[in-house]
Amino acid sequence: MRAVPELRRRTAQNNATTLGSAVSVIGTFDRANPFRSVPGRMRRFSYGVGVNRAEGLRTREWGSGERIALLLHGQFGSGTMWWQVGPAIASHGYRVVALDLPGHGHSPPDSDSNLASCVEQIVAACPQAELAIGHSLGSLLLAHCVHEIGARRAIYIDSPFTYERSGTLSDSRRRASEMKARRTLEWLTETRPHWSDEDRRVEAVAAEQFDVETSLSLMTSLSGLDHRPRPGVQSLIVVPRPSDYFTPSDLELLRQDGFTVVEVDGAGHTVWYGRVDEFMAAISDWL
């Protein structure tokens, strides 16, 4: 995923092709003020269109508390990537449920995956959670289901609330295939020295499990939509310092819009890898 400077105009026909009646026009991305909309181009997903999937999403759990915490991973990841965070949150009295998103981990591939069907599958797998946490792609999806699962608090980890696909579908397929092939244990050891051995092993396995066609379909349906969380749920944004997605002025705009923002020095995009103690300290008041 990447931050986008400006969203291109979409026709009503193209909107309908992607999500049918689950699309409504609300505004556009403003380069000078990216977290506020002005009338025009950006689209917000609305509910009412869903696709049933015969097989549900695979889950892994930690703890047995009465409160439930839902964890949603990012692209190329899996629920296993929370192997340290899950037990740590469970120690605060939660039953922690980490999902494998469609075409990730042990969840089945779905070459027709889209935002509506993915939200439906998430809610079916975890219909209620007091706390919900999303990383990267998981944050975009969480923004669309946080109210449906009744979450009281939400944590969004290093993810802009915009996404725009660049190039053609073939370009995206090539890039995703190359990244899948590249994310070997050897490459991760060379390029992610601050991660633990288990972090790298988990990510290498997740790359092997990653289904390119599922991702292409889902990401196409996300492109050009407004993924900002709707009001009504206390929201924390956790980012590394520096972040590839947010400038200091971006973060200040988020604070002005009512978000709590915490930065973790020296972390990478997967903020808790190699920095789990710092990450848990950053979210401790929200548990």
Q: Number of helix segments? A: 10
Strand content: 15-25%
Side-by-side strand order of the widest sheet: 3-5-4-6-7-9-10
Question: Which stretches of 5+ consecutive residues score pLDDT under 50?
Answer: 1-54
How many extended strands?
10
Task: Give the overall form.
Answer: globular
CATH level 4 superfamily of the domain at 59-165 and 210-286: Alpha/Beta hydrolase fold, catalytic domain
- N-C termini distance: 27 Å
The SSE string, one letter per element, is HEEEEHEHEHEHHHHEEHEH
- CATH third-level topology of the domain at 59-165 and 210-286: Rossmann fold
Please state the average pLDDT score: 83
CATH architecture of the domain at 59-165 and 210-286: 3-Layer(aba) Sandwich
How can the largest sheet be summarized? Answer: 7 strands, mixed
Question: What is the helix fraction of residues, given as a range?
Answer: 25-40%
Please identify the structural class as seen in this structure: alpha/beta
Which CATH first-tier class of the domain at 59-165 and 210-286 would you pick? Alpha Beta
Measured on Cα atoms, how large is the radius of gyration?
Answer: 18 Å
Question: Can you walk me through this structure?
Answer:
This protein has 287 residues and is an alpha/beta fold. It has a domain at 59-165 and 210-286: Rossmann fold, CATH 3.40.50.1820. 33% of the residues lie in helices and 20% in strands. It contains ten helices and ten strands. The chain has helices at residues 12-19, 85-90, 115-125, 137-145, 169-182, 185-191, 197-209, 212-222, 248-256, 276-283, and strands at 23-29, 37-45, 59-62, 67-72, 94-99, 131-135, 153-157, 225-226, 234-241, 260-265. Strands 3-5-4-6-7-9-10 form a seven-stranded mixed sheet, with helices on both faces. The chain has a three-stranded mixed sheet with strand order 1-2-8. Strand 6, helix 4 and strand 7 form a beta-alpha-beta unit. Helix 3 (115-125) crosses helix 4. The radius of gyration is 18 Å and the shape is globular. Residues 1-54 have low confidence and may be disordered.
